[in-house]
Predict the structure.
Amino acid sequence: KNQVEQSPQSLIILEGKNCTLQCNYTVSPFSNLRWYKQDTGRGPVSLTIMTFSENTKSNGRYTATLDADTKQSSLHITASQLSDSASYICVVRGTGGSYIPTFGRGTSLIVHP
Amino acid sequence: DVKVTQSSRYLVKRTGEKVFLECVQDMDHENMFWYRQDPGLGLRLIYFSYDVKMKEKGDIPEGYSVSREKKERFSLILESASTNQTSMYLCASTLAPAQGSGYTFGSGTRLTVV
């Protein structure tokens, strides 16, 4: 069964600090991996998409990495801001068959001033 | 930008009521989805639709039904609401999932069943 595991479940950091969120998956064969940001009370919004051939992709202060061999991805947030407080969800899609992606349970990030 | 609009942000219903959650998207997407989101469980797929009048069960369809009479509108129906259906409900649409298109989500409907 396809699974996506995220760690940590929750994280508290001080404003201005960096942090890294982890995503491990078993989805195979692999098609792509997305990181979504979900603000409290809102729907998730896509931050970045990683395909098999991509190792690193940045979106402002967010940098996603992908190691397709070990089936791991990370989302690094640099110089955190209060507005980064949100849930970050890793979503992985496989190839062939059903196109329904597999969602991780998310990491809840709180940035304190 | 694609917009997915859910008709209600907050909803309070009584046990046993029939509840309709409406979702409308404005970018001609063929694929639409209903998820529920609960603390610690993440998003779980209830139903999805890849075309008008077509529907497929997701992982947790029990107690729910859906309707897709028009391409832009996908409705989730709770036939007889129960307290364990208290949750955040998220609607999403996507253009071409087979090509890796991402989801556009609505803002969610927080449903409380009392």
